[in-house]
Amino acid sequence: MRRPKYGLLFALAAFAACSSGGDDGGTDPVGTIALSLLPTSASIPQGGSSTVAATLTRAGGFTGTVNLTVEGAPAGASATVGAVATTGSATTATVTIQIGATTTPGTYNLTVRGTATGLTDATAPFTLMVPAAGSFALAIAPAGAVTMQVGQTDNSKTVNITRTGYTQAITLVAENLPAGLTAVFTPNPATGNSATLALTASNVVPNTYTITIRGTGPAALKTEEALESLDATTTLQVTVNAAVTGGFTIATNPAPSVNVVRGNSVDATILVNRTGGFAGNVAFSVTGTVPGLTVNLNPTNTNGNTATLTVTTTAGLAAGPYPLVIRATSAGLADQTANLTVNVSAVGGGGNATLNWSACSALQKPVFVAFVDGTGTNWTKVNGVGDVYTFSITQGKGGYAYVIVGGSGNPTITVAHLTQAELTSGASNFCGTAPSGETVNGTVTNLPVGFTGSINFGGRNTVVATNSAFQFTNVKDASFALVGYARSPLGIGSGDRAFLDRPLNPANNGSVGAVDFSHSTKSFNPALGSITLNGFSAGEATSQGMIFYTGTGAEVCTPANLYGVQVTASPFNAYAIPVDRHVAGDVHQLTIIASSGTTTTRILTEHFGDIVTRAASPFVMPQALPIPALSDAGGAYKRPSGTITGVPAEFDVFFAMTYVGQTVARAGSLTASRGWAVGNNVTLTFPDFSALAGWNNVWALAPGAAAQVTMAATGGNFAGGCTAGVRLVTSSYTGVI
Q1: Helix locations, 444-525, DSSP H
Q2: How many Å separate Cα 695 from the centre of its chain?
Q3: What is the DSSP letter of 188?
Q4: Which residue in 625, 624, 661 sits closest to 737, CA to CA?
Q5: Collapsing DSSP states into helix, strand and coil, what is residue 208?
Q6: pTM of full prediction above 0.85
Q7: What is the average pLDDT across 701-721?
């Protein structure tokens, strides 16, 4: 900025020399004066000051007064003179220059001028630089309020200082503190750009308070009337709650590890164990994640007792163990931690068991799937990919469980206990291939009056009582046998007729023609076998049912229901398709069921080809099952449990327990292979999933709800599907708990 040559002028002082005699008698002054400054320049910020040493030297016998003035000084600047001293011909003084807070920053070329009557002026140049005085602002980081308890110290906040041309130390104080709440800043004064704030609540009345944080800098001229300090303020809201009572710890279920095949996810439950009446909020965090392994907490904080930790892995994640640390915090209490190792295996490696619902409809798919590695209670929830669930069984035994709600909204819990070999022998496909959906039509003709006709095609069945049309839907597009059986109202075998026509594969909405029970070649009398039944009891309600399995290739073992009737004595007659009508793969299944009231049931199932040949030797019913001890294992929901003592040796395949709610529509099924349930005494108990992530207790019966419970044991030989020689026996007992 261009300035006037002389600018503002202010008088400094009049320098008088010391004299040893009287006045000069009125003679004209003689001599000279000289003026010097040290330093010759200074930088003084707005509101600041600085000192300059001025020296006046007289010569030629001059001893008069010299007036000093400053030319070119900016508005708001002033000066004072002190410490004046004369030694010989030199007079020295200290000049203090004060710059106002409102002085315009810039560089000023000043001239200090000394004048005396009759003498030439003496001058000395002085360069004055006025930088801006600077400022600062305060802010709390991180932003947000502080929540603490009585007896706690909080160190979560930092006071950040934003400086604008200001380098001085700043003193920090907290104002409006309630009694019992103290604030300590470190460092204080703050010479840098931040200071930590420690708040300590001792005997504070619980409430929410707003405190003011004030920062004060060194004195500076803020107005032309008064000297004040630079300062800045910010506020902080502090909520002080009553002191926490009690405490908590955390654990995981499963613990200490979970298993997952890479590319899949797995859940673990975080368990909060509260003690001493503690009911506060607990917040969770997890460390130890790596690229390709992420975690999700639901919820991230809780006033309850559980949270779900979902671990998700990518297909490219290296197999191996990944240790995680779960940290739980609650204000006023020490942090708690739990360790969980995620064992990640490669596809085809540790993930050796697979459950597949991918071919199922939405209502057939599970809402919950879990597995257990071993025979313990350490169940793990597993999440599927495309409705395929893969998990690792490393011990000799294991199991899986799932829940299907279905369209009725009535959940069914299914549990299976198997050996490692059984679990890993291949994927368990629950729904198979859906049918193509073709519609097949036909008619029934020459059904004798009063007879009942069972009509079968492609695994579909309908029962007719008159000559009429029939229709099957969702029939697979393939060749099948058309099978019919006409049963007399006078009793099985009293003029019964059978019908067989194959192979047939009509077009969609086409017809298989007529099931003509008088056809000359396709209709015939069924073959008769007189069945001797060892173990028959007249005190039991006994029935027999016959199924004819037909088909070749992919359609092998397609069932055709022939009949089902009561049996009142032994021997009794059974009827089947004559063996001369058979082709390779045809086989019959005769099932005999004997029940004593609603309590005990014995079932015999056999597969054979020719009924006449098989009837040459007796059919043998299984033994009755020893009455099991039924109970409720207890917990958050009803968990039926049963023990069979002294299991007969013939039951060597698997054991089962089912339940049905008496008043609430809930059901469950638990099976255990003989390889899993070893020994003469077998106990089955529905697991406790209540602490497992993703489980919902409403899927099971409430603890006090009544349940009808059935325990069963099965044995025999099962060579596979529709194979002659298969014999299976089952005995069961039903009670109520």
Answers
A1: none
A2: 13
A3: S
A4: 661
A5: strand
A6: no
A7: 91
